């Protein structure tokens, strides 16, 4: 009839020893950064926003076609020796003095000329000249090229080394305690069902160390 009754024993600052039958499931917060050895490859997306200055020196041979009037204003120096070999025809009248008198005589014929005539003059040239040509032209290109570069570089980077990694989230851990733990109960209540209790009856003349158990419910 007492199997539905319980005994409540208050506990205050009670020291007990307990054994854990199963591992404890806890959450661990790591305050310090962890040293982790890393070896492998990592996919990375690297943004690039730069202005490149590229010096360029190159010899080019483009083919040029030209057909146009070109104005020319210059002075051409002429320094030559002109050879003259020809006959000079003469048909004129000359005056001669004969016996104190001036007489006009007709002169007609060919005079052979053979001489060198030096020429040293500056010839001005100011006019338009028609130029027409189609030919390869050799030119040297020396320039600094300013090229804006704005792109996303996708690459696979090999990583090998020790990294200092901060842990910002709590970690789930399982703690397996093998030893008996001393625990102090500050405030609590021990519930003992009467159905779990039994009475011992000791017969006279028997050793108290060998009781006979008789469970009463």
Automatic annotation (TrEMBL):
It comes from the Bacteria. This is Uncharacterized protein.
């Amino acid at each position: 009839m007492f199997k539905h009754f319980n005994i409540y024993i208050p506990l205050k600052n009670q020291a007990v020893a307990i054994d854990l039958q199963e591992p404890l499931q806890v959450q661990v917060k790591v305050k310090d950064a962890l040293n982790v050895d890393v070896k492998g490859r990592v996919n990375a997306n690297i943004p690039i926003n730069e202005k490149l200055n590229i010096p360029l020196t190159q010899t080019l041979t483009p083919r040029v076609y030209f057909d146009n009037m070109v104005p020319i204003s210059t002075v051409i120096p002429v320094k030559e020796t002109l050879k003259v070999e020809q006959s000079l025809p003469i048909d004129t009248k000359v005056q001669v003095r004969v016996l104190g008198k001036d007489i006009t005589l007709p002169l007609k014929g060919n005079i052979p000329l053979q001489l060198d005539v030096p020429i040293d003059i500056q010839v001005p040239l100011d006019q338009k000249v028609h130029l027409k040509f189609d030919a390869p032209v050799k030119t040297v290109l020396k320039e600094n090229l300013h090229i804006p570069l704005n792109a996303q570089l996708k690459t696979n980077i090999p990583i090998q080394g020790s990294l200092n990694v901060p842990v910002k989230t709590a970690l789930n851990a399982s703690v397996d305690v093998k030893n008996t733990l001393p625990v102090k109960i500050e405030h609590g209540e021990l519930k003992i069902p009467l159905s779990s209790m039994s009475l011992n009856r000791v017969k006279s003349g028997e050793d108290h160390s060998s009781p006979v158990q008789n469970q009463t419910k």
